[in-house]
Amino acid sequence: MLSSSYQAILLVDGYNIIGDWSDLKKSRDRHGLEAARYELVECLINYTASVAYRTKVVFDAHYQDTPRSSEVHTSFLSVHYTAFAETADTYIEKFCATFNRKKYQQESTRLIVATSDRAQQLTVVGYGAEWRSAQMLAREVEQEIIKTKTKTRKQTKKKPSGRFLFNALDPAAQRRLRQMQRGIQ
Predict the structure, then answer these.
(1) What is the model's pTM?
(2) Local confidence band at 30 (pLDDT 50, 70, 90 cut-offs)
């Protein structure tokens, strides 16, 4: 069941994204599909945790005679490998079709599919899902990285001086602790 802390479910056509993002294409060409998959998953782990999406990255079985499998990486992200002869498109379409009949709709959960496959786009939108091209997703991920870095920089600047927890407290709490230390209630 979907937790109410998730704003949306994001389905990602993994190989489609790898084939579209230039840095992942380079990684695939230099180091193989495994390295590109790893980089995509690492990138999406940070992004989906930041935007509170529940993400399913779907990879085709890629002509390997293996059963369907999945790996949970975080509470926000899981990776799904399709069964032999099943495509990521088929997996995503089935998920979209059953999504409308499940409880997710009653919770007003958004369903977003990330792929640059035009036929897939039309199909998932027909099921009521939102669509993101690979480049749109790349821009959203990049914007979130910038936002997180800016937020981190601001928090770093606000850090109190000194190495003690006491210095991080507001002045009223510091006064109260000093009074308690001296036995003054």
Answers:
(1) 0.75
(2) very high
